[in-house]
Amino acid sequence: MGENGGIGKTLANLPTWLYFGLIIIAMAYITLYPLGFPIPISDQTRYVYAAVDVLETGDIFFVNMGYESGTIAFMEPGMVAVFRHAISKGVKLVIMSTAVESPMLVGRLMDKVKPEASGYVYGEDWVHLGFIAGGEPSYASLMGDINGLVTEDYQQTPTSDLPLMAELGAPTHEKIALVGIWTAGGDVIEGWIRQAAVQYDLPLITEVNEMMVPTLLPYYPINLDGILNGGIGAAEYENLSGFAGEAIKLSDMMTMGGLVVLIFLILGNIGFLMTKGGKK
Amino acid sequence: MSQRTIRRQIPLALTFIVGIIITANWFIDLTPLNDLGNTITNFNTVMVAFMMGFAGVNILMIHTRRIQKNMSQGNMIDVFYSVLLLGSLIIWIAVGIFMGRSSDTYQWMYTNFNLPLSSTAYAATLFYLASATYRVIRARSTETTILVVVSIVVIMGNMPMFVTYIPALMTVKNWLADVVVTAAYRAITIGVGLGGILMGVRTLLAMETGFLGATED
Q1: Which of B120, B161, B185, B188 is the best residue to mutate to test the A interface, defined by the most A CB atoms within 10 Å of its own CB?
Q2: In this complex, do A132 and B45 lie within 8 Å of one another by their Cβ atoms?
Q3: Residue A227 and residue A87: Cα distance in Å, rounded?
Q4: Contacts of A260 in chain B (CB under 8 A)
Q5: By CB distance 3.0 to 4.6 Å, which of A18, A141, A224, A231 could disulfide with A74?
Q6: Does domain A43-244 match CATH 3.40.50.720?
C-alpha cells in the first residue's frame, strides 16, 4: 500500500475526537474574534425584501410563526429583521402559531422588535393570536373568517375587543396584504401555498431551515414570492434592510461551521481516493 | 342498527358528504356553501385541539403501565425516565390550568428549561452533520463523485466568505437550485399531487377504507 496508503488511511479514518474538537475550537474562536466576512445578497432574499417593501401604511401582514426553540437561533433574527422593516413602513401585524411552543417565543421576539418604540399599540397595530390547531383546514378557516375561528387572543382577551381583529372581518383574505411563514418544516408552507397563494392569490414569503429550501423551490417565485435561506438569509435581509441584528453577528459562525464541514468532506475524500488508488 | 352500519357505512357516508362540501367550497364561490365549508374546517380545528388533550391522557396511561412493568422487572432507570416525563407533564398542565398559559411562571418554566434544552440538542446536530458528511459522502462511484462535487459547490455557495471572492459560485449554486433541483422536485411534487388526487377520489368513493381501521370483513 505504501506511503500513500498510510496517509490516505489516516485521512480517511480521522478519530471522532479530532474533528469534534476542531469544531469546538473553530466555533469558540470565531465567537471571540469575529472576522466580519462580507455578506452578498441572494435573489431569494431580495424578493422577500421587495414583498415587504411594497407594503403601505395600514396594510395587514399576516404571520404564521411555526418554529420552536431548537431552531430559534436562525429563525428569530430573520423574523426580527422583517418585522422591523414592516413596522418602519407602518404595516400592521397579525401573528398566529402552528407550533405549540411558538406563542411562548413571541414575547422575546417583540422585546427585540420593540413595536411600541414606533408608536404601535397592541390590539390596534398588532395582535398575537397564539397557537391554532388543525393544520391546513385551519388556514382555510383563517382566510375565510378569522373571527369565526379565533374568539380570543393569546392573553385571552376576546377578539371582539381588539380593533385590528374587527378590521380583518370576513372574508379575511381580502384584508390581508402579505402572508409570512416562519417554520423549520416545509409541510406548513405547502398548506399556506394552497390556502392563501393559490386560492386567493396572496403574496407569500417564508424563512425556513436551510436544508428545507430545495423542497420549496418548485413553488418559487410563482406561488412563493421569496425565501429566506435560514440564518444566512436572515443575515442577508439584515444587510439589505439596514436593520443590523443578531444574524449578521452569527454569519461568521455559520461560515465557520460550513468551512469545518467542507474541510472534513475534502479530507475524507482525499484519504478515500488515496487508499483506493493504493489498492489498485 | 347493525354494527356494520355503525362502523362502516355511517363513517363512509360522512366522509363522502364532508369531502364533497369541502371540494365544492374550493371551486364554487357561493356564500352558504362557503359558510358551511368554514364551519366544517372550524370543527376540524376543534377536533385536533381535543385530540392533543387526548394524546396527553394516552401518554399518562402508557407510562403509568410502563412504570408498573419496569418496577416489577427492576428497571429503575426506565422507571426514572417515565416518572420524569409524567412529573413534567403534570407540572406543566397544572401551571397552565391554574396560573394561565400566559402567566409569568409558565413563561419562566419554558424559558429556563425547554428553551436551553431544545437549543442545545439542536446545536449538537452540527457535530453529527460534520461526522456524517465526513464518513458518508465519499466518491465511491460516478454518482457519488457528482454528489461530492455538488456538495462542495453548494456548501461553498452558502458561505458568504467564498461567494464574495468567487462570485461564480453563486451563479453555479443558483443554476443547480433553479434548474436541477427545481426540475427534480417539481416532478416529485406533481407525482405526489396526482397520487393525492387519486387517493382523495378513492376515499370519497369508499374504495379506500384504511382510515376506518381494522374491520371484520
Answers
A1: B161
A2: yes
A3: 20
A4: 130
A5: A231
A6: yes
Task: Give the one of A20, A148, A258 whose C-beta lies nearest to B38's C-beta.
Answer: A148
Tell the residue number behind the cell numbers 441572494, with chain if given. A42
User: Assign residue A224 a region: left if phi > 0, alpha if psi is -120 to 50, beta otherwise?
Assistant: beta
- Please report residues of A whose CB lies closer than 8 A to that of B139: 269, 272-273
In angstroms, the separation between the Cα of residue B79 and the nearest Cα of chain A is 27
The pLDDT profile of chain A, 280 residues, written as one tens digit per residue, is 445 568 888 888 888 888 888 888 988 888 888 777 778 888 899 999 999 999 999 999 999 998 888 888 889 999 999 999 999 999 999 999 998 888 999 999 999 999 999 999 999 999 999 999 888 889 998 998 899 889 999 988 999 999 999 999 888 999 999 999 999 876 789 899 999 999 999 999 999 988 888 888 888 888 999 999 888 899 999 989 888 888 887 888 888 888 888 888 898 889 888 887 545 4
Nearest 5°: CA angle at B25, between B19 and B27?
110
Which of A113, A110, A63 minimizes the C-alpha distance to A88?
Answer: A113
Q: Is the CB of A141 less than 8 angstroms away from the CB of B119?
A: no
A199 touches chain B (CB under 8 A): yes
